[in-house]
Amino acid sequence: MSQAKQRVSVYAPASMGNVSVGFDLLGAALAPVDGEPLGDRVHVEASDGPLSLECVGPYADLLPGNVADNIVLRCARHFLQQQGKPEQGLALTLEKNLPIGSGLGSSASSVVAALAAVNAFFDSPLSPQELLVMMGELEGQISGSVHYDNVAPSYLGGLQLMQQDGARALPGFNAWYWVVAYPGITLSTAKMRALLPTELPLATALRFGQQLASFVDACHRQDEAQALAVLKDVVAEPYRAAHIPGYQAARDKLQALGCPAVGISGSGPTLFAVAGDKTQAEAAARYLQQHYVLNARGLVRICKLDPVGVQVERGAM
Ligand SMILES: Nc1ncnc2c1ncn2[C@@H]1O[C@H](COP(=O)(O)OP(=O)(O)OP(=O)(O)O)[C@@H](O)[C@H]1O
Ligand SMILES: N[C@@H](CCO)C(=O)O
């Protein structure tokens, strides 16, 4: 009697790094309100051959031509080596649903889905904390530095604040909509990081600390007015805004439409706008679709925070 082969499929949502107020320290997982997924999927199944990866999906053509350079394969190799397992017997498929170099945590979504999938396939030898550390390391290999503000929310869901010893969930504001718009062009995270100064003036450092502390306090007390008053980026936006086509004009227009906060998602070019209700979110989305999106690769989504993060499905083939 032949034994059924196991198959594991994992979805990892898109995420916004920084959320303006927490450069490299704060990130949010995104769930479109229309119920359509916004994130990569990785499927792992047993095979009789060497470790392999097939890429499909709307943004698969933008992935590195050499599959060995794909972060999903690198994640699987790293996991197998770390576990002392041979590089064979696994067939991976990546559904590349997120644009690359977008500010939507595209590589992080692939990393989270890949590592969660292989870990689940082997019955979870790594703990969630060990897996999160590995995700940060692998994401750091391609984005130019180790920062957890995309992998932590994509893995754990919600609004995640990085601490010395891991990630802590912050209570978000349930009423808020997060409208995200990706114009359809690529900006490399490493290049957008190279725009930043290596040191900040003392006054900027003080303002950053005060704003982040106020935001965290406001989340815990559910003080919406205080949270919105400090949802500003004094670290990266001043150096990046001019390098994102149309960003400054869109930010001004969205503020004029009444959006109480607008910022760069991760290192851009995606921008986010907070909207207090659905009507305002729809007005912002219409504006962004008409004036910020540059080509057919672009997208606009009205989102809430994704409270779940990674989703693992097991099945037999
Ligand atoms: N599965 C993958 N998904 C995304 N990028 C990948 C993947 N595998 C390899 N790469 C490469 O990793 C690099 C990712 O660059 P970068 O960090 O700028 O993009 P990103 O993760 O999409 O950014 P962002 O976090 O702003 O969405 C690119 O050079 C891309 O070709
Ligand atoms: N915190 C990172 C996020 C990149 O997506 C940055 O802004 O460079």
UniProtKB/TrEMBL annotation:
The UniProt record lists the EC number as: 2.7.1.39
Subcellular location, record wording: Cytoplasm
> What region holds the GHMP kinase C-terminal domain?
236-293
Q: Name one Pfam family in it.
A: GHMP_kinases_N
What does the record give as the reaction this protein catalyses? L-homoserine + ATP = O-phospho-L-homoserine + ADP + H(+)
Q: What keywords sit in the KW lines? A: Amino-acid biosynthesis, ATP-binding, Cytoplasm, Kinase, Nucleotide-binding, Threonine biosynthesis, Transferase
Binding sites annotated in the UniProt record for ATP: P99, I100, G101, S102, G103, L104, G105, S106, S107, A108, S109
Q: Name one GO cellular component term.
A: cytoplasm
Among InterPro entries, the record links this protein to: GHMP_kinase_C_dom (IPR013750), GHMP_kinase_C_sf (IPR036554), GHMP_kinase_N_dom (IPR006204), GHMP_knse_ATP-bd_CS (IPR006203), Homoserine_kinase (IPR000870), Ribosomal_Su5_D2-typ_SF (IPR020568), Ribsml_uS5_D2-typ_fold_subgr (IPR014721)
**Protein family (similarity comment):** Belongs to the GHMP kinase family. Homoserine kinase subfamily.
Tell me the protein's name.
Answer: Homoserine kinase
Which species is the source of this protein?
Ferrimonas marina
